[in-house]
TrEMBL record:
The keyword Transmembrane applies. It comes from Glomus cerebriforme. The chain crosses the membrane at residues 12-33, 45-64, 76-97. Keywords: Membrane, Transmembrane, Transmembrane helix. This is Uncharacterized protein.
Amino acid sequence: MNFIQLQAYAGFWTGAVVMISLHNMFLSFFLYKTRQTKVSNIIKIIFNSANALRFTAVWGTYMTPKVATLLQCTSLQYIAAIGSVLTRVSLTAFLLWRLKQVHNGKIDSWIGTTLFIIRSGLGIAQLGFQRPSTFSNTA
């Protein structure tokens, strides 16, 4: 597979994921207006917008030209990392919310909240310690 075919393949699949995420986000907006359970729709909106942000940044990373500045590369990598952390944290929040709706136990609520706070803290720490960089083929 040559470079052009690889770019087309990656662009197609990341574009498809972005379109699916945007469709689900708009659907969650409409359901937010009509449904009773607003918390799950808000979490779905956050999840889908973060997923669209992440895959848009990934698409931008794949489609950057061979001569790109360090600022362009690092900004796309930071945006992708922020989208990835937001996607994972919102998915965790959504699953904990659904678990609370199914079984509303006091101990489960405390354990879930503690694990969610740990997960969020580690995600934010990951963003703080991440140092995106570029590499060169001139060696």
